[in-house]
Structure formats: C-alpha cells, structure tokens
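Quarterly update from the structural biology core.
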Amino acid sequence: MDRFHLLKVFIAVAEEQGFAAAARRLNMSPPAVTRAIAGLETQLNVKLLNRTTRFVRTTDIGLRYLDDAKRILAELKAADDALTGINAEPQGQLTITAPVLFGSLFVMPTIVDYLKKYPKMEVSAIFLDRVVNMLEEGIDVGVRIGQLPDSSLRAKRVGSVRQVLCASPQYIHKHGIPNHPDELAQHTIIASKAGNNGLDWRFPAGKEHITIKVKPRLTVTTNDAAISSTIEGFGITRLLSYQIAPQLAAGTLKIILAEYEPEPRPVHIIHREGPNGAVKVRALVDLLAEQLRHNSALN
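Predicted structure, tokenized:
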C-alpha cells in the first residue's frame, strides 16, 4: 500500500483518537482504516497506537513518528505547490500564539499588515500567558519569551526583554527609591499572577542571587491591572520591559533598581515548518521578524 496514504491514515487516527472518526474524516470505511494502520505497523515492526474499547492513543514511538509524518507530508505538499504554482501567494488559514500583552502590542499590528498584504489568508490569534503546546493545539507560529527547551520546532531570535521593577513618578516623589532589594519590604508591592510571576523575586548579586519573598498589598491576575495601579502611584511592581514600553516612553512609569536586573530574556519566533514549508507560514514569520527586530522595545 502507498506509504504516503498510510501516513495520512495514521495522522487522521492519531489526531481524531479513533478509527471511526478518522474514517469519516478520510471518507473511508472503518475496516479499511484498521487495515491501513495494521499494515503500517507491520511494515515498521513497531506499535504506533494503543487501542482500547474506549479510546485510541499514540504510543511514545507513535507520537514521535506522528511529528515526522506531518513534516514529510507538509514538505511533499510544499514541493507539489511550488511545482504547480499554487504556492505563489499565501492562502488558507493559520494560527499564531503569543503572550497576552506582547500579542496586543507587537503581534497584532503585524497580523493586520499580513492580512492586508495577502487577502486570501485567514489568521486565528491566540494570546495566552502560558506556554502552549504547538503540536497538540495545532499552532503554526508562536512567540516565546525566555530560554527555549530542546525541541523539533524551528526558532528565530528577534530581540530580548528585561525583567524590571518600576514605579510612578508620584510614588517615587512621595516614598523615595529603594537602593537595595532588601529595602522592598519597606515599600508597597503590587504583584501580578499573570504568566510565571511569583512572590519569590530573585536578583543577581555578583556570582550569587538574592531572593526576596515579597508581601504584596495588592495582587492582581493581569499585567494590565498591575500597570494601571502602578501608574496611579499605589506601589512598586515587577514586569517585563516590553509590557511597560509605552509608559516608559511617556514618562508615566520609571525603572528602579536597574543595577539588580537579571539577564535579559531572549524573544524567539518559533514555528513547525521547515525551510521548504508552507509559504503562508514563512511569509508571516519573515514579516513578524522584520518588524520585531526593528522595535526599540525589544532591542
């Protein structure tokens, strides 16, 4: 049986987590789907799927093979499209993810430019303050802040951001500026629970680190709320530099204790496509990289 056909069947069963659902998706009979998977496992001499009466799940080997199978079929489609000229202009749909504020400030303008430039495209933007599993959640492009774990994803570095303490000019005028992280206990703290922010604030001190367990008077669930209350002069908060770039430029917030900032965090665009992948993904990645690399808030 044609290997590419077997790969399509395997991908459908793995994604639908069932033979009947995969059969409907492929317009095949359930027995034909079952035979195709059995034939593929026989050819490979490995078990790709665990089957019970209630569900079908990929094995660990099957999960790795699934990623490779998708990549192979994507590259085949890209080669076919390039040959026939279908791929001359981006068309179709893709999904991009980014942290909430980063997406609003920096990604949305690029998405709008992209959609204006390529009228046959549709984009779904998912902005969340958590790490998204791009493979499991069907994401094509993502923006990650921080060190990247080893993975099969391709990454393009576009800048860096700093973790900073900030306060409003009104607060600084009334309460002064702490000269050392230890002095934060004498100030009003605003803490945001968004992303990975916690109450143990670490600061570099030579080759060591100082850890300050802050006791906030105000705890919020969004960075927007932390920013607005800090602008009002209520206290000191800790955020990433890009999140307060407009306020820093306007002078409504000031950075304090800059000498105790941790190392900057890298910003990467990550995507699942290879160098010969879908032109719609490459076009968005290239446009986003160009705009982010020229943004002073990230460089």
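The radius of gyration is 24 Å.
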